[in-house]
Amino acid sequence: MTDMHLDPSLREAAQSSKAWPFEEARKLVKRYPDGKPGGEAMLFETGYGPSGLPHIGTFNEVLRTTMVRRAYETLTSGAPTRLVAFSDDMDGLRKVPDNVPQQEMLREYLGKPLTAIPDPFGKYESFAHHNNAMLREFLDRFGFQYEFVSSTERYASGAFDAALANVLRHNQDILDIMLPTLRAERAATYSPILPVSPKSGVVLQVPVTVVDADAGLVSFEDEGETITHCIFGGGAKLQWKVDWAMRWVALGVDYEMYGKDLTDSGVQSGKIAKALGGRKPEGLIYEMFLDEKGEKISKSKGNGLSIEQWLSYGSEESLAFYAYREPKAAKQLHIGVIPKAVDEYFQMRGQYPAQAPDKKLGNPVHHVHVARGEGVPETVLPVTFGLLLNLVGVMGADATKEQIWRYLGQYIDGADAATYPELDALIDNAMAYNRDFVAPTLARRKPAGGEAAALRELDDKLAALGSDASADDIQNIVYEIGKNEAYGFENLRDWFKALYETLLGSSAGPRMGSFIALFGIDNTRRLIAEALA
Fold this sequence. Notes:
- Belongs to the class-I aminoacyl-tRNA synthetase family.
- There is one protein chain.
- This protein is about 50% helix and about 10% strand.
- It is built from 24 helices and twelve strands.
- It has helices at about 10-15, 20-30, 55-75, 105, 125-140, 150-155, 160-170, 170-180, 185, 240-250, 265-275, 305-315, 315-325, 340-350, 355-360, 365-370, 385-395, 400-410, 420-440, 450-465, 470-480, 490-505, 510-520, 520-530; strands at about 40-50, 80-85, 145-150, 195, 210, 215-220, 225-230, 235-240, 260, 285, 290, 330.
- A three-stranded parallel β-sheet has the order 1-2-3.
- A hairpin with a 4-residue loop joins strand 5 (about 210) and strand 6 (about 215-220).
- The model has no long low-confidence stretch (mean pLDDT about 95).
């Protein structure tokens, strides 16, 4: 891991940086002006409920928290920090997700802890272990430094026993906080403690009476019988708002961000943490990712994007770049946002080396790569992803990767996979995106009105150019034709749209000068001939 974020030249700029990770990190400096007592590490936590397959929103929380963690280290010249990724895998399954196999089998286990439910994919010892493994695989792939903590392991090992006894001692205090927030029907059965039935193994939602707090003994009704039961060693878990507060206190959490939909929950958990003798952590309340319909992304619905889907069509860095931007603004998260995110990432990366320290700290790519524990690459790609998509589109769905590289090699000096490994990966992304989303929708239309005459002039002008004509030279020709009133274009936008629709089969496209220079004059003239035929 590189410590580029600890460069002394950045610390001064960090003190006044308006980049949101630094604004968040300054909350922790204010919380502990002299550092955490005893030289302890500042503890950052992220929470994850493995009741469904992990999605980008889950990854997003670890990423953004890591960005704040690194910003804090920059501000404090490397004060110790830790990041705990906590999985609430002892939670009872309340609903079967729509996007997993063996639905009927899972329904038989409703109410049981996620770690006690068989893996419907048949790969791991439980449903929770499967989902935890999927999340950890990508966190590891991205290079995050974190400690994975399983709720089941903490409860079952007795690591939370002292904290559970503390909850029992403050049972009434917690009820006084929670009951006024609940509907009458819910309040009638509410208990901070959810015992695991010794008969059925279900996480019970029943009223509980504290018998002996220090011994962890409670009584409740289970299948018509009143029993006394020890909640230590995995005999119970806590209602999640209480569980959240208990973790903050037991683990000593200093920072945890969460979504806007949990705002009220955060307030209640903060009050409970205080009742338990602790303190609510600092944190950012972020807006939610939305799907293409503007609906909140849900693990159980499986809407939005999976991590794997994004990586089929875009790079890891573009995913992190998209997650970084404007965390307090709701953003749509669907396939259509990927190409723009890829190109904006590389655009911002190209600006980074020449920027002053304050500008570097405001550049999203700084936070993307610091979160990965690496420096910002200085490689500049010879083509944009948008241009690459158009090239792949006109070459056709049958074009191979080798053919695309041979094509690029004709127009870009030294263009090969060894020289541009990132571009090599983007070719895979572009081919997949074209195959799945572009090619099925391409429909070149015939030119109408003055468009045909304009295309003939473009063909004549291109025929007169040498093979070494620059993209700017070609762009100037395209501009001049579009501005010719004889062809009837109200504005240049209409001319470019006509080029995209007649030559490329889409309503939007690249800078035409750059595209023609890359695709080749002869090949572009072939497209024009096909359009005019």
